[in-house]
Amino acid sequence: MAKGRTTEVVRAYYDSWMGGIDTFDEARLRGLLAPDLHFEGPIAGKRTEAEPFLRGLANFVGVMRGIRMLHQVYDEDEAAVLYDAELPGGMVRFAEFFRVEGDRIRSLVLHYDAGEYRARGGR
């Protein structure tokens, strides 16, 4: 896969939810995520399936007030993104690591401080 395609897929992922819950595009996201997505995060733990991830992302998007992208790095089939999310109680920093295969996100590892996230209004 070309580096450009990985960039396109990951950017489409963010475009599908960064505008907030009113523009949350679940159908588009479902098309970007492998059905057996491997997800790992501080609250959810390790999971294999896109549907629970989509529910968790919708919950996050429902409380976040904005995203400020800080860094993005793309390779042939991997990407890393660092951003700050504005929550009701303040900013929380997130880092996401993607593996893209066959025009879909195959795995996503998310890092953030779960205590800080909950204290600032995350759910």
Q: Describe it for me?
A:
With 123 residues, this protein is an alpha+beta fold. It has one domain: Nuclear Transport Factor 2, Chain: A (Roll), CATH 3.10.450.50. 33% of the residues lie in helices and 42% in strands. The protein contains four helices and six strands, in the order ααββαββββα. A six-stranded mixed β-sheet has the order 2-1-6-5-4-3. The longest helix has 14 residues. The radius of gyration is 14 Å and the shape is globular. The N and C termini lie far apart (35 Å). The mean pLDDT is 95.
Task: Summarize this structure as a short list of keywords or feature phrases.
6 strands; 123 residues; 6-stranded mixed β-sheet; globular; Nuclear Transport Factor 2, Chain: A; 33% helix; alpha+beta
Distance between the termini: 35 Å
* Total separate domains: 1
Give the overall shape, derived from the CA principal axes. Answer: globular
Write the CATH fold name.
Answer: Nuclear Transport Factor 2, Chain: A
Helix and strand succession? HHEEHEEEEH
Second-tier CATH architecture: Roll
Structural class: alpha+beta
Strand order of the largest sheet: 2-1-6-5-4-3
- Helix segment tally: 4
Largest beta sheet, briefly? 6 strands, mixed
Helix content: 25-40%
Strand content: 35-45%
Mean pLDDT: 95
CATH class: Alpha Beta
pLDDT below 50 for ≥5 consecutive residues: which ranges? none
